[in-house]
Amino acid sequence: MKTLPLRGRHCAAGILVLLVATSVRPCSAQAAPPFPHITARPHYLIGIALDRLGRPLKGVDVTVQGTTIRAGEVTNLTITSGSDGRFKLPLPDGVYAVAGAYYRLTYHGLRYVIKLAPQDGPSPVHFSSDDGCVQNFYVKLSGQIDPSFDKLHYGGEVKGDALELQKALASAIPKVEVTFTFTPVGPLVDGSPGSTIARRVTIDTRNAFQRFFTLTDVPVGAYRLSAAIVLPDGRNIVLAVSPDPNTNGAQAAGPDSSGATILFRPAEGGIEGTRPVIVRIAPAQ
């Protein structure tokens, strides 16, 4: 038996398969917490799940998919992490792939399914049960889920409409840069503290097709969202933010020059992820 340093996944691969408006840049990638050492064992998938602060995470469902050798059956096997964050899933003879890890929690009275990040990135882990596998997971609230799909992020998404701003400025200013500020309202979805985030997007006021914009990869939580522009003469103009309460759970009822409180709501159907927050921006009345 060989002891492997748990710096990522350690699967002695019997089989290795490699699968090969304006959008605003996401947050800087969240680093993985430090992991302990674990011993790989044949016929087991073992590992540990941690939160963003490196603490053990109980109740994480880890799933593998594969084909058993004796029966030739395609099977899904799931194990749940214990109070120490560790899991140990026995595997019948066969070939498997780690499908993912999911954590279910309640936030603002809503039920969320959080997809955990594998420590060494998104590449699928295929392995023989004879070799066993070590795979670790952690809570990641921002960053790309898979570099192969640049639109998939762990964070939430805000979709906006700047039509009223275009109407007000088109005759005077052809382009304007809007600064959005996300100020956390309490802890984030996983209970960790959030931080204030600033995003900028350029609006072409004379092109109606560029009225729409997207702010991607915002760590899931509740925020006070405000918006402002700086005019060519240096004046700072605060904008009204109008959320759509029917689609995103925003808690403000209409245009508000001080911003609006928004909440990234869980995706429908009990799947992982969140629904986009929909907002409109306009000059404050």
Strand tally, please? Answer: 21
Q: Structural class from helices and strands?
A: mainly beta
Gyration radius, to the nearest Å? 23 Å
Question: For the residues shown, what is the average pLDDT?
Answer: 84
Helix content: under 10%
Please, how many domains?
A: 2
- Uncertain runs are 1-9, 12-27, 249-256
Element string (H = helix, E = strand): EEEEEEEEEEEEEEHEEEEEHEE
Shape descriptor reads elongated
Number of helices: 2
What's the story with the biggest beta sheet?
A: 9 strands, mixed
Based on the coordinates given, report the CATH architecture of the largest domain.
Answer: Sandwich
Our measurement of the CA-to-CA distance between the termini, rounded to an integer number of angstroms, reads 71 Å
Strand content: 35-45%
Can you walk through the features of this model?
The N terminus is likely disordered. The chain is elongated and about 75 Å long. With 285 residues, it is mostly beta strands. The chain folds into two domains: 131 residues, Immunoglobulin-like (Sandwich); 128 residues. Strands 2, 14, 15, 16, 17, 18, 19, 20 and 21 form a nine-stranded mixed beta sheet that branches. Strands 4, 7, 10, 12 and 13 form a five-stranded mixed beta sheet that branches. Strands 5, 6, 8, 9 and 11 form a five-stranded antiparallel beta sheet that branches. Helix content is 4%, strand content 43%.
Pick out its properties:
elongated; disordered N terminus; 43% strand; 21 strands; 2 domains; five-stranded mixed beta sheet; Immunoglobulin-like; mainly beta; nine-stranded mixed beta sheet; 285 residues; 2 helices; 4% helix
